[in-house]
């Protein structure tokens, strides 16, 4: 009986590790923070990685979806903000503005909030959207 239980436990652990190993924790050099990554299902992770890729490929609809992506609240949303900040750094502010300027006001507000917490949480203290991305900040607060 004990061998049976150990065998079942081993199978469950193997399945869990297999599922976790299918998830992506990085997309094109952009790291998905642990709090966001761990809280995701495989399906959510696939969606997030696709939205990151599409946004980097200058798809404004993907950026719009990314601003409303379920992040689980708390630290997971800080991680999503860091992902968005990393996208701005990678694309450059001017290119990102072209995408962000197409967003509806509500999505611009969400993006600004995520960038605010992402810059504060994901980097050394003191980074602010007004300093890091001043032109983008103006677009998001119009």
Automatic annotation (TrEMBL):
Name of the protein in question: Lipoprotein
Organism: Gillisia limnaea (strain DSM 15749 / LMG 21470 / R-8282)
């Amino acid at each position: 009986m004990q061998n049976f239980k150990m065998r079942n436990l081993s199978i469950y652990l193997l399945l869990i590790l297999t599922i976790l190993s299918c998830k992506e924790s990085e997309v094109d050099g952009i790291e998905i923070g642990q709090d966001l990554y761990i809280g995701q299902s495989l399906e959510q992770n696939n969606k997030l990685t696709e939205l990151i890729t599409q946004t980097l490929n200058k798809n404004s609809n993907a950026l719009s979806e990314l601003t409303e992506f379920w992040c689980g609240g708390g630290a997971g949303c800080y991680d999503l903000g860091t992902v968005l900040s990393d996208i701005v750094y990678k694309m450059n502010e001017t290119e990102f503005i072209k995408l962000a300027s197409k967003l509806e006001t509500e999505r611009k507000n969400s993006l600004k909030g995520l960038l605010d917490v992402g810059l504060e949480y994901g980097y050394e203290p003191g980074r602010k959207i007004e300093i890091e991305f001043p032109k983008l900040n103006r677009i998001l607060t119009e």
